[in-house]
Amino acid sequence: MSLKRRVFLTVLVFGLAALGACTLAPLVGSTPVSLRRVFDRSIPFAENPDAQIFFVARLPRTVAAALVGSALATAGVVFQALLRNPLATPFTLGVSAGAALGAMLAITFPVSLAFAGVSSVPIASFAGALGAVAIVYALSTVRRQGLSTEVLLLAGITLNAFFSSLILFIQYLADFSQTFRTVRWLMGDLDVAGYTPILASLPFTLLAFAVFAWLPRVLNLLTLGADAAAARGVDVVRSQRLAFFSASLATGAAVSLGGPVGFIGIIVPHMVRLMVGSDHRVVLPASALFGAAFLVGCDVLSRSVMSPMELPVGILTAMIGGPFFLWLLLRQR
Amino acid sequence: MRRDHAVTPPPDGSERLATPAAADPVAKGDCEWRPSRSPERQGRPRPLRRTRRPGIRSWVTVAMTAMVLLPAAGCERSSPGPSRAAQTSPPTRIVSVVPAVTEMLFAIGAGPLVVGVGSYDTWPPEVRSLPKIGALLDPDIERIIGLRADLAVLHGSQDDVRAQLERVGIRTFSYTLGGLDNVMGTMRRLGTLVGREREAEEAARGLERRLEALKQRAAGRPRPRTLLVFGHDPGTLRSIDASGGIGFLHDIVELVGGENVYRGERRESLRVSTEAIIAAAPEVIIDLRYGHSVSEEELKREREAWNVLPAVPAVRAGRVYVLGGDRFVVPGPRVVDAAEEIARVIMSGGEVAR
Lengths: 333, 354
Hints:
The complex is a heterodimer of chains A (333) and B (354). Chain A is mostly helical.
């Protein structure tokens, strides 16, 4: 099968899955909703609970889940290729720890930082993510010209640990209600209650995706090693830098939108590889679509299984994804 | 959720008054050194053993040693802990890590006996100048001993601290969180413990009378469906924590004439989605803001955050109330102030809403 055909088929199949998930997700939930009433224009929106559940509660979080899922899954693919390490995740290099630190600070020391309808928590977490990216990048380039992936990895892991200790310190200082809220933030939450938070993070995600579109061929060569890639005409440093910044940007945008939803960034890429092989030209788009479908599905469960209570989506991703991944793994062998 | 609430109460839900004897290795005979325990000795302070251990001069040192050498701590009885006779007489120096109980102690006239309070204590104003002895996670045992306390009020889950204090002869009072009745119940038990039964009874009766008045006022009136919110992200409706059907705030809402929309959930608090709130259709929303003081501008912003859900009757009728202050957090005597404020907003538009 030619590559073009494979890409087309993969995108078609995974695209249908993502589309199906996104179409079905707003239809199910804790409350039965009549579709006729949802789209009944004769009832004013303010007096139409069905329409509000559909358009204010369910649709935004479905979109948010799709965005966060695909951003984390693709960022995972890019980081695994960039670091040539199958255990790399979007959170390995400290981006999420930086984001978490920002969010903890915003929750523990509430300030009126709300900007254009976005509350201080996502703003602070995005700022934290950018801060972490800047620190890791500065550390990895300080020794020599170019980007050392070993230093990148070690600096990222160290920064992760350092930020984690700061997070614990802040949690320790905070009172219980705040500590509870910060811990809850770490489990992920996609109930964004409106489109403003999505619109705020969308430009960053789209920018990252635009770079991802250019990356697959380079990632294929980078996984062979920097020297091999250079021998085949790749500008290694420039590509690594682009991969690092785009994947970090996608991660930062996703985490500030939905919290550090675990598992997706490491396992979805591996699931997709088990299904379609390891060519990044196929893996990257497939991961974007599968990540979206997977998180949308998890979010449906998170808001319906224990309703009216929310089950944190970060708990469900691993609970559902883990067995599924093992099944895929065993089936292949 | 609330400061006192984060503790998972022990299942028995009771308060325990423990005496040091229960955890006293000396009493169990697992120390070599055994003090004379004859009845005639009681009432007189135990002779200090400094003649036997001349090196240990300061009782602080003893306290530290006691903490390090826990199994042997029972033998180190030279610390100036209370004599055995003191255990039956009312305490004279009380420390409390529980803000609600501190407030109760002041309310029953035992305020002058309080010599140390928890990190989160802010009320009454007198406590601000008292030494801080930590809180649920970081109680400072050395300080408690150093303050020569003879009664320590602890959270029910602080088993380790209780055991350590009892080893050095300090009585403890374990507080567990309960519903609204627990406030008056705890006050009465405290009254008995500190020898102020009459004052405690009066104070508890006073609170009960005010609550009864609120209940009478609500009788026969429509009961608006009420959503009680403990927190959400500032300025938006993200991460909403609401009251379930347990806890003193739930009790207050129901007592003063509201009907908690999540009364059927057997939990103190639950994270709810915007979908669940639209479906629950509350007629009144009470949005509590804790801790820091709330500016007029912030109140307005928090109220307006709810406008994204116009299908909710409370939003449509303009019955979203943002209330702030730690009387909503601390289940002490001031809960009745909180109840009066909640009653005011629940009853304010009772006729208009429906």
